[in-house]
Amino acid sequence: GVGTGQFLISLADPAGFALFSVVSALFSASLIPVALAGNAPAPPVAPPRAESPGGSGSRLARGLSGLSTVYKWAPLGVYGCLAAGLLNSGFYTLQPVFMRRLGYSVTDVSHFMGFALLAALLPQWPVARLADLFDRRIVIVAITSLAAACSLLLFVLPGGTLVEALGYVYVSVVFSLYGVVTSYVNDCIPADQRIAVSAGLLLIFSLGASAGPTLASALMALAGPGGLYLFTTLVTCTLAVLTLGSLRMTPRVIR
């Protein structure tokens, strides 16, 4: 849905109102299946239990108060989800700006974004399979290293076909990061806390997604369009270093 939606940009002038009307209509249409679904019976409510010394699952779901508990269980998960939010939001919001400033037309940008987000589907299963066979942190290092290499090349290249090819590779590996990080976190925590921890990780991801466009655009203002990929280079290299540090400090998690 996200990938195919990008092609709608070429239907009308992005500066006009037509595309906003289409988006509004699609949002309204998305409510129809929910409205037709009817009311499901409420699930039984589990009785409250005593809190453990490290904090309970309910605390994890209470916004920022849960972040410290997630950090105690899997510090790398906090860094990884934050980085995934920074990288994903930076690509979504500023890749079109990056391409427009390199001289691409609106139609070309629309097609690239659509095909790039569809291409991001391709490595999901292979990456997941590798993350099941090896320590997930090794896979995180591989993802961030490849993304950093692509980012550095995109930062220095002036444009052309190679920019598009590298863009496809970059988005494919970066959009696999969140799933591997959350899988690693779930290996480190008690099974009955996974839903609460997932809520905490989504909050961390959202914080990164909120900050990503602002930080990336600041670097673009300083370094030009390539500042977007200077930003992603810094984020991916930092996460790679932190993950290598985690590998040296703790053994492989047994699943």
Layout of SSEs?
Elements: H1 2-5, H2 18-36, H3 57-60, H4 67-73, H5 75-101, H6 106-119, H7 124-133, H8 136-156, H9 161-174, H10 177-188, H11 194-223, H12 227-249
What is the mean pLDDT? 85
Q: Number of DSSP helices?
A: 12
The total strand number stands at 0
SSE ordering: HHHHHHHHHHHH
CATH class descriptor name: Mainly Alpha
Give me the CATH superfamily.
Answer: MFS general substrate transporter like domains
Regions with little confidence, pLDDT below 50 for 5+ residues: 51-61
Shape: globular
User: Strand pairing plus helix content: what structural class?
Assistant: mainly alpha
Helix content: over 70%
Distance between the termini: 33 Å
Please report which band the strand proportion falls in: under 5%, 5-15%, 15-25%, 25-35%, 35-45% or over 45%.
Answer: under 5%
Q: How would you concisely characterize the structure shown here?
A:
With 255 residues, the chain is mainly alpha-helical.
